[in-house]
Specification:
single chain, mainly alpha, Growth Hormone, Chain: A, globular
Length: 427
């Protein structure tokens, strides 16, 4: 792992910058609406279009990374993200009104396309780079920490830059993407890639077989990842709305308060990656403890709307999410053959993006209900994640790891034989 520090540093810049590229705009959305004279719904689309495009294209990027190589997909994706950021920045700087809004929205769509082929491909690439599972789990913990650190600083940085010039966050995005691009080009040395020559039909058939063979625990991990991100962004939206409407906190001060639970999540992700090692049983129970902690914090938070009480409990809940995510990342990547990791992990990333997209609108609807109802719903969703971790994620004992490593090989041979038979039948 020591020899891969520069590679990890460069790869960790991708989730950091992709997170900043989206979340940095959240604290200045009201300011953007005022400057462009557009409605709150229209300005919210600047966030939604980014996430929706990414959700749709992530599986395609996963297939392409399995077909041609991870780095060959990440580099053009970062270029597209930088170009989209540049389009939005130029429109915000040089244009005005609804005309500027339309071009900014187009730029955000391009950014979403770039995001689909950047961060989701980092997870399988990190897994490809290391042979020891303990190194994989530590490295994925660093990647999750970088992702979360982006969430920590984005409300602070976005609010600060917006206070100087309202469109300055737009200008910062392409600059950050280009920095990450340079780091990846010169520092990342991926392992020798064996090209997967399967056609799309054969690849989809193989993926279908894997989902059929391992679907129970894969679907559970997909759902847990989505539930965790639903909780993060749902709670952030609740705190952001409450801090501004009830307590009058705005700008950098509000960003600092929002950063408290996110900082706890960041630290928990880093420590979890170091703690879990290569023991899949430890991963399962660490993730279960994390989801249970989140559920308990949400239940207790429903009994009081006092802001200090809620922020404290949400900090505990964020620690739970930070414990769960690195475990899910490692269990997913280590349970799948390298040739299929890109596609499977991309489906996982899509579920996480869905959680990000659903959290804020769901909470915005629940804000109209009683405080207890809001947190009861959030706690119920989190409890589903805890139950899935307990019942559906069933890794073997540590001393059975070798048997588990053999199993994917047997499955892979069977899949290859099935594909050959289908190809011969067509001929």
């Amino acid at each position: 792992m020591e020899s891969k520090k520069r590679d990890l540093f460069a790869l960790a810049s991708i989730p950091l910058i992709m997170t900043l590229g989206n979340s940095m705009l959240i604290p200045i959305l009201p300011q953007i609406a005022k400057e462009l004279r557009i409605s709150s719904f229209m300005v919210s689309m600047l966030i939604t279009v980014y996430a929706v495009v990414a959700i749709l294209l992530i599986p395609i990027a996963g297939y392409l990374s399995d077909r041609f190589g991870r780095k060959k997909i990440i580099i053009p994706s970062l270029i597209i993200a930088a170009a989209g950021g540049g389009v939005s920045a130029a429109a915000a700087w040089l244009m005005s009104g609804t005309g500027a809004y339309a071009v900014i929205l187009a730029g955000r769509l391009l950014q979403g396309i770039g995001a689909a082929g950047a961060f989701p491909i980092v997870i399988p690439l990190v897994s490809d780079m290391f042979k020891e599972e303990e190194e994989v789990s530590k490295s994925l913990g660093i990647i999750e920490t970088s992702n979360t650190f982006g969430k920590v600083i984005s409300p602070i940085l976005g609010a600060f830059l917006g206070s100087l010039i309202w469109f300055l966050p737009f200008i910062a995005i392409p600059v950050l993407c280009l920095i990450s691009l340079v780091l990846v080009i010169f520092l990342v040395k991926p392992p020798k890639f064996k090209e997967n020559k399967q056609t799309i039909r054969e690849f989809l058939s193989t993926t279908k077989e894997i989902l059929h063979e391992k679907g129970r625990w894969l679907y559970a991990i997909f759902a847990i990842g989505g539930i965790a991100m639903f909780g993060v962004f749902g709670v952030l939206f609740y705190l952001s709305e409450t801090l501004e409407s009830t307590y009058g906190l705005k700008g950098v001060v509000k960003g600092l308060v929002l950063a408290i639970p996110l900082a706890a999540l960041c630290l928990a992700s880093f420590l979890a990656g170091k703690f879990i090692g290569d023991n899949k049983v430890v991963m399962k129970w660490t993730a279960f403890a994390g989801m249970t902690l989140l559920t308990a914090a949400l239940i207790i938070a429903g009994f009081s709307d006092q802001i200090y009480f809620v922020v404290g409990l949400m900090t505990l809940g964020s620690i739970g999410i930070g414990l769960a995510l690195p475990c899910m990342d490692t269990l997913l990547t280590e349970g799948i053959e390298k040739q299929q990791r890109g596609m499977i992990s991309s489906l996982y990333s899509s579920m996480r993006f869905i959680g990000v997209s659903l959290g804020p609108p769901a909470v915005s609807l629940l804000l109209k209900a009683h405080h207890w109802v809001l947190f009861s719903v959030l706690a119920s969703v989190s409890a589903v994640g805890a139950l899935l971790t307990f019942f559906a994620v069933k890794p073997g004992e540590k001393n059975e790891d070798d048997e588990h490593k053999k199993e994917p090989r047997r499955v892979n041979f069977r899949l290859q034989r099935s594909i050959r038979n289908k190809s011969l039948a067509r001929k």
